[in-house]
Amino acid sequence: xxFGFASPPHISPPASADSARLGRMLEPAxxxxxxxxxxxxxxxxxxxxHDRHRPGPSTAIVAVLDLQERxxxxxxxxxxxxxxxxxxxxxxxxxxxxxxxPHDLRLRAPVRTAVLLYCREGESRWTETxxxxxxxxxxxxxxxxxxxxxxxxxxxxxxxxxxxxRGGRRPRPSATDEPLGQPGPSGVRRREMRRTxxxxxxxxxxxxxxxxxxxxxxxxxxxxxxxxxxxxxAR
Length: 235
Prior knowledge:
Number of helices: 7
Order of helices and strands: HHHEEHEHEEEHH
Distance between the termini: 132 Å
CATH class of the domain at 24-170: Alpha Beta
Strand content: 15-25%
Strand order of the largest sheet: 2-1-3-4-5-6
């Protein structure tokens, strides 16, 4: 006769738990066939998010883009997981999306797109961690009323849009990211650049309003065409 203790019913065996975790990830072929919208200018999106958040290893950046691919909201965070699980990544992404932007669940069709930039070590080819982030991004977008956009990896030497094949060199920090008020020529250049950028809209409005202000409308005195009044006065 053999005696032993049975496992509690609410605890799944390790093998089934691991297989369920592996089921919550997407491979590049599945991602490519999911109809993910292509970015018109992925290099500009990557450079903008890199300058804004300065990601380090294991840093994820989730950003929401409008129809013109302008960033309307973004959040960065560090996520370390020994066994990557798309379920956990989905919950983390959804929590940050809810913190930075309202949901669009009331719309009939999504109008904004969420993209994910993940900074990690190693090569740019697909890993299980990437597959878990893909699964989590797709599910989080569905629950927040957004379109699921590109998943981009950022390795020490390059960036890569997985599922598309587009990539490039890792962005370098720009000189304009130095803090204001710092002594030296670089700080002066940054202050001058900000003033020039802020002055452009005012100059454009002035140029547009000049023709409108100089245009004089014909005066009417008692009805009739102004041209007819001038002929009558000349007689």
